[in-house]
Amino acid sequence: MLPFNKPYFTGNETKYIEDAVSSGKISGNGDYTKKCQAFFEQHYGFKKCLLTTSCTDALEMAAILIDIQPGDEVIMPSYTFVSTANAFVLRGAKIVFADSRKDHPNMDENAIEGLITTKTKAIVPVHYAGVACEMDTIMEIAKKHNIYVIEDAAQAIDSYYIGKDNIRRPLGSIGHMAAFSFHETKNIISGEGGLLAINDEEFINRAEIIWEKGTNRSSFFRGEVDKYGWVDIGSSFLPSEIIAAFLWAQLENLKQIQTVRKNHWEGYFDKLSDWAGANQIELPKVPEYATNNGHMFYLVCNSLEQRTKLLGYLKQNRILAVFHYISLHTSPFYAPKHEGGELPETDRFTDTLVRLPLFYELNPDEVIEALLKF
Ligand SMILES: *Cc1c(COP(=O)(O)O)cnc(C)c1O
Fold it and tell me: Which one is catalytic: 102, 143, 186, 373?
């Protein structure tokens, strides 16, 4: 069976892990952690970066940092992974779902303002498939209503937004904070892993404290205080040096990984265009304000029936393709709590979207050949 995903190892992962082990320090916030964090700060201009054990954890940190209280409202797409919502639900927030765009699973920026109330505390745009949400509009709305923007950039490493001012900004550098994932299904991996990128300096000091179990241990190690103790709430959000060492091997090869993945993506796009048109299947859209980072190649079928047929056909041809997300407003956990209206575009993507295999060592022609006979 051709797998849907296969983690790619650059070759240096175990070497750097051995190095971390032989250095005698394998808990968090050591040399490899600092190297990775500095890489992201220099490469993408995020003001402060903290590695986390997952994107889920980075989102949870963001929810604590903006001081989400029970009853606060947070606007996000329903077409997303559970962690986007869970991080805020854990702090008692009510989730208010915005519908997807017609041409893209990303949240419809024009659906946001009508959802804002006096209780709205944050907007959480999810850059689905690594393709930017329309951030100029989202940031304008946030500024006007004095609310925070937390980017769920789990899939969005090395992707950009081109605003009205024509400046290319890395995704994750636009909102007050952003969360990235290094889960093995993402472009750059460490098994489990994540990153909190902080762009608003107001949050930096407290972020370090929450990251280190609510203690001022980071200040202590910098010699700013002579003993450290419990100063705030917090948790153990930082990964061990073993994870950071693995991640460093990936970051050293970021350019090459991105080039190969984008080639696969373009191969799919070019060779499937005519076929898709003939079958009334949509290929992924990258709006003119966004870039493609080769994270995901998906098809949007014309009906649930067509998708079921297509998935069955691929399985017969020993190719594993998958669908997702079951939108959160219809989930067993949140459907009873969902008070908003219907989300027809979200429902459509839930019923019709198919993700094709996309990983470094893939030969996309294997999948393309099978599809052309569908
Ligand atoms: C993968 C993903 C997450 C969760 O990332 P983890 O690192 O596994 O916690 C959150 N949001 C989105 C949109 C994702 O794709």
Answer: 186
Nearest CA to ligand 1 atom 5: 55
* Strand intervals (E) in the chain: 48-52, 73-77, 94-98, 120-123, 148-152, 160-162, 168-170, 177-181, 194-198, 297-300, 353-356
CB neighbour burial string for 36-55, b if at least 16 within 10 angstroms, e if fewer = bbebbeeebebebbbbbbbb
pLDDT digits (tens, 9 = 90+) for 20-54: 999 999 999 999 999 999 999 999 999 999 999 99
**Quick check: CB of 148 below 6 Å from ligand 1?**
no
All domains in the chain, ordered by first residue: 13-251 (3.40.640.10), 254-371 (3.90.1150.10)
Amino acid letter for position 62: A
Is the CB of 95 within 6 Å of ligand 1?
no
pTM of the model: 0.98
pLDDT tens for 135-168 read 999 999 999 999 999 999 999 999 999 999 999 9
Q: Is 309 tagged catalytic?
A: no
Ligand 1 atom with the shortest distance to the CA of 83: 10
Structure confidence by residue, pLDDT tens digits, 314-341: 999 999 999 989 999 999 999 999 999 9
Instruction: Work out which ligand 1 atom sits closest to the CA atom of 128.
Output: 13
Instruction: Tell me if 194 CB under 6 Å of ligand 1.
Output: yes
